[in-house]
Amino acid sequence: MKLQPDTIEALAAHLEACQLEARDTLKITDEHPGMDWDDAYAIQAAILARKLKRGERLAGLKCGLTSHAKMKQMGVSTPCFGFVMDSFAVPEGGEVKASELIHPKVEPEICFVTTKALKGPGCHIAAVLAATDFVLPGIEVIDSRYRDFKFDLKSVIADNTSAARFVVGGQAMRADRVDLRTMGVVMEKNGQVVSLGAGAAVLGHPAAAVAMLANHLGARGEEIPAGTLILSGGVTEAVAVQAGDHVNLRVQGCGSVSLRFV
Ligand code: 0L1
Ligand code: MG
User: Fold this and answer.
1) Is 244 left (phi over 0), alpha (psi -120 to 50) or beta?
2) Could you tell me the distance, in angstroms and rounded to a whole number, from the CA of residue 68 to the centre of ligand 1?
3) CA angle 255, 135, 107 (to 5 degrees)
4) What's the Cα-to-Cα distance from 6 to each of 13, 21, 46, 260, rounded to whole Å?
5) pLDDT, tens digit (0-9, with 9 covering 90-100), for 196-255
6) Distance between CA atoms of 114 and 120, rounded to whole angstroms?
7) Which one of 44, 47, 62, 114 is separated from 142 by 20 to 30 angstroms, measured CA to CA?
8) Could you tell me the CA-to-CA distances from 80 to 27, 65, 174, 245 in Å, in that order?
9) Helix H or strand E encompassing 239
10) Which residue among 142, 202, 213 has the greatest number of ligand 1 atoms within 8 angstroms of its CB, and so is best to mutate?
């Protein structure tokens, strides 16, 4: 680690304030070019600690930048990991206040719920499938706190991978009842198809993203507990939204889930 503990706390406080007050900032590596990956995840962990201290609850974990479409869109080449809180959750068909966000985008996700703990190193697709209770569709609302979504990977990890809101719903399916690679995903904004793809866009198989998360946590002596919701990453590039937009996601064999921006 290159940053001092008080700098990590100060950066966490700054980024969380930007999230809570819906204001943007410049990427933090501009002022801290020497920060390393551990610093980035330590800032993210400090944001989580701040939220837990205020009584919020962890709702799940997320993988980000797991598809080539997303990596290309954001100009990075490595996935990243973050968390979602209960305060980020939107009920199925529910409303998201655009005024609480800076420049939201939506992306279609295949979500997992585990029934057994997953611990790396050495976690693989088969272990993930064996530990999966069910999969279901989800829409993630991302909202980078960085001006114009201009960031590098360390800055975005510190900013909890742009996590802002999410909705899950539709038809939960047992993982052995579906082919997660060929599972089709169609996202509509205001009735128009805006992105489409298949599960294999996520690292060849969405369970590979979950395995990567387990291995990432394992390297830190942590695990994915049983009963965890995991967003495996945007299948397609993210789509900008604004107040008045209605977003609907259909996932083959798993029904649909929606939300609207007011
Ligand atoms: O969930 C994601 O893929 C977001 C990763 C962070 C980069 C972004 O804001 O697009
Ligand atoms: Mg995402």
Assistant:
1) left
2) 12
3) 70
4) 10, 22, 11, 39
5) 999 999 999 999 999 999 999 999 999 999 999 999 999 999 999 999 999 999 999 999
6) 15
7) 114
8) 16, 6, 26, 28
9) strand 239-240
10) 142
Rounded CA gap, 217 and 259, in Å? 31
Dist. CA 21 → ligand 1 center (Å): 20
- Tell me the three-class secondary structure of 27-49, residue by residue: CHHHCCCCCCHHHHHHHHHHHHH
35-60 CB burial, b ≥16 within 10 A, e <16: beeebbbbbbbbbbebbeeeeeeebb
Going by C-alpha positions, the residue among 234, 254, 228 that lies closest to residue 132 is 228
Neighbours of 254 (CB within 10 A): 23
Tokens describing residue 141 = 């609302």
Report the atom number in ligand 1 closest to the C-alpha of 74: 10
pLDDT at 86: 98
The pLDDT tens digits for 21-77 are 999 999 999 999 999 999 999 999 999 999 999 999 999 999 999 998 888 888 888
| 3-class secondary structure, 54 | coil
Q: 236 near 69, Cβ under 8 Å?
A: yes
Q: Cα of 252 to ligand 1 centre, how many Å?
A: 23
Pairing of strands 229-234, 58-64: parallel
Residues with CB under 6 A from ligand 1: 62, 64-65, 70, 74, 140, 142, 144, 149, 156, 161-162, 233-234, 238
Q: Which residues pair with 230 in a beta bridge?
A: 61, 112
Contact present, 77 and 95 (Cβ < 8 Å): no
